[in-house]
Amino acid sequence: MSSQENSEENLPTKQDSAHGAVAVADNPFADPGLPPHEARQQDLDDRTAKRSERTVALLFTVSMLATIGFIACFVIFPIEKIVYIWPIGKVSALNFSLGLTLAVALFCIGAGAVHWARTLMSDVEIADDRHPISAEPEVKAKVLNDFKQGAEDSVLGRRKLIRNTMFGALAMVPLSGIVLLRDLGPLPEDKLRHTLWGKGKALVNMNTGEPLRPEDIAVGSLTFAKPEGLEEHDHGFMNEIAKAALMIVRLQPEDIKDKRELDWSHEGIVAFSKICTHVGCPISLYEQQTHHALCPCHQSTFDLSDGARVIFGPAGHALPQLHIGVNDEGYLEALGDFDEPVGPAFWERG
Amino acid sequence: MSNTTTAPADEQRGKAPAGERVADWADGRLGIYSLAKANLRKVFPDHWSFMLGEICLYSFIIIILTGVYLTLFFHPSMNEVEYHGVYAPMQGVLMSEAYASTLDISFEVRGGLLIRQIHHWAALIFLAGMFVHMMRVFFTGAFRKPREINWLFGFLLFVLGMFTGFTGYSLPDDLLSGTGVRFTQGAILSVPIVGTYISMFLFGGEFPGTDFVARFYSIHILLLPGIMLGLVVAHLILVFYHKHTQFPGPGRTEKNVVGMPLMPVYMAKAGGFFFLVFGVIAAVAAIATINPIWTIGPYRPDMVGTGAQPDWYMGFAEGLVRVMPGWEINLWGHTLVLGVFIPLVVFGLVLGAMAVYPFIESWITGDKREHHLLDRPRNAPTRTALGVAWITMYMITLVGGGNDLWATHFHLSINAITWFVRIGFFAGPVIAFIVTKRICLGLQRRDAEKVLHGRESGIIKRLPHGEFIEVHEPLSQEQLHTLTQHEQYKPVEIGPTVDENGVERKVKGGEKLRAKLSQAYFGEGTQIPKPTAEEYKEIQEGHGHH
Asked: TM spans, by residue (chain B) (predicted)?
């Protein structure tokens, strides 16, 4: 940049002359200077000025009354009282009254001050000079000289050993801070690869808490399930359900287009991870006619009759399927964990 | 002895009014007189658009005041509790303490809901205010030397404000904000190599864990606001130090600043404006519910509501993620999640473009002078067009961030909206650029026309031979000056490629690029030459013949 020819030919050169206060007599575009002050009604007529004064005082008085009103509302209205206010509808009486009295109290102070400034304070425009931000050359020379003197006094330039070890020490000491951050969390290891599902885990209805039988699941219905033994009150429930949440639908077996999906299903019942493979929202919308499941967050759409492949939206890969079967007692069970990580993709996913 | 010498001074001081004595006391310790000398009657120019920055400052103060109040009642904890408060629909529901205490603030602390709503509304207004304030600074060229650093401070405030807002609305641990946190975690996972590590470290393990509310809390109330407070102070000090820019007009030059003094006019106006902003936000908080977390329910990673939307300033990032095709590359046992990572990078680039613009422009113009007179946007057509192109891209992406709501509210196909955003992201800015530039040039032409031929008076005159003409009134010298004072750059040329000795020198790539960009900024068809005094005089004399 600096190496280039920075000739300032392209710049309009007349920055200063054009804006000089001295108008060139024959230049019709010359700066005529500040226009004369125009008096306001308040400057000329004392009655108008008095009226402005009363307006300002009235606004400040209204503010005081509103503050008293605020305190009164705080005392009077019980917090649970709901009132109907047209056109807003039903609102909390306390919130509404406190908010409006506070608003009036604040607004009137502002309105009073601004009205005072606009009508009664002098509105004569003043011109102030600007000074260049950059220092004068003498100042710059002095500073550079001081710096040089300081640098010489420090002997840092000559005592290389001090300099190098100091830089080394300063560079290394923040490492302690970084090391201390290590225990913010565990290493990822294979945590994202496993869920609570495993061979023999029964599928439990999320809403009723009962284990699911194939006959509980009607064609076209959408059921959410969790692994048996995982209860809401459990420590770690949130982390487990964030990976194990399951979505079960029943299709006509002949509608299932994907071979593996069919193999891993039971009488047309298929179980997929409920966690979207895009950024991890739970998929919660199901259209039974088309067998499409939709994530309401970013509209990724999966075809549950075709291996849950992505047919629309930003998701990058199909929903993982859980291999299910029926145990001896006739309940649906998992025949293993998901064979791929659930949820959003990540670097180590592969 | 010493008594006799100091007595007269003490006596004198005893006579001075109380205020002066207090000021003397403070001056002896703080040197306030020297400080006030330059600042008490400091001149501030007047223009409505200069209030936009004030709105940001005041909403920031309001956020801090209300935020401190909220910390008195909020429990930043993810311990599971069963709710037994006054809000009947949530009786017995399992939730985190953070969510429960937010319910308590809303239903059991008198005025708590109001303060919560003022806090949230003020945050939205703070971000919106900064957005519009930055537009004002951009389109008027107020970011030019010497204010580039202050532009960066403002830019940082905007970006930090976004993240402070995000960490803030995530604190109640409700279903909506939790979904947003999950989205963020999913986006972090997409970062190559370190994504899973960052996620584990941020959340203290797997998502959601039991740590993030407490961690976001300290980020939200301490780390980010602390940095922002420092930046706000630095921003204001620089505004004072540089003295405010002003719009051109009679008597206003690069060497002066014309306006009203700080004391009393700006103390009253700006101080009063704080109360106006606070009052309006209080009224909004009284009337309009925001973030009713009690209707949304506590967060569960396996549940979600429809129509999930972030606060507006994150909608742009949301849009990028929503419309990006789901590209994933699997190679050598690793996954490159481009479908999420590209939006993440674009998000940074789009914001970063704002930060670097002042430096790019000053490199292209080569202008190293100070600028205190503002440009009218029309007089810098390329800059204005670039700005409008950026905003167009931002707004189209914002539409993408709410594609589901657009679809349901306007009965449109979500596929169509997604494709509109995908195409619009690239085509929209180009169209906006061309259209804006043309409008700017049209306005420049109109200015030139007005200067040379005067203002249309609306008076129709019939000449003796039957012709109708409209009488044009010549402009006053004030108006003539205002319309012609602006500067017009000439494009930079690549200097001679042979020096005086006939030796060829190498033209660097940067130099060529600069010449090209300069041509695009100031070359042919990018500005209408402003009328000259000679033209004006010629035409005025011509009028005499009528």
From this structure: 50-74, 120-139, 151-171, 183-204, 216-241, 273-294, 331-360, 380-399, 419-436
Q: Give yes or no for A114 touching B (CB within 8 A).
A: yes
pLDDT in tens, B327-355: 999 988 899 999 999 999 999 999 999 99
Q: How confident is the model over A162-175, as pLDDT tens digits?
A: 999 999 999 999 99
> Which tokens is A66 given?
């509103």
**So what's the ipTM on this one?**
0.90
Question: How many domains, in total, are found in chain B?
Answer: 3
One domain for residues B169 and B298 = yes
Of B190, B207, B277, the CB nearest to A242: B207
Chain B residue numbers with beta carbons less than 8 Å from the beta carbon of A123 are 260, 265
What fold characterizes domain A195-335? Rieske Iron-sulfur Protein (2.102.10)
Alpha-helical runs (H) found in B454-508 = 477-484
Confidence category of residue A8, pLDDT binned at 50, 70, 90: low
Pairing status of strand B468-473 against strand B256-261: unpaired
Cβ separation A117–B269 shorter than 8 A? yes
What pLDDT sits at residue B281?
A: 97
* B515-538 mean pLDDT: 88
Does the CB of B120 have a partner CB in chain A at under 8 Å?
Answer: no
Both tokens of residue A333? Answer: 């069970």
Contacts of A89 in chain B (CB under 8 A): none
Q: Identify the domain containing residue B68 by its residue range.
A: 53-375
Q: What region, left, alpha or beta, does residue A331 occupy, with left being phi > 0 and alpha being psi -120 to 50 degrees?
A: beta
CA of B142, closest CA in chain A: separation in Å? 15
Nearest to A130 among B257, B326, B404 (CB): B257
- Residue pair B321/B343 in contact (Cβ under 8 Å)? The answer is yes
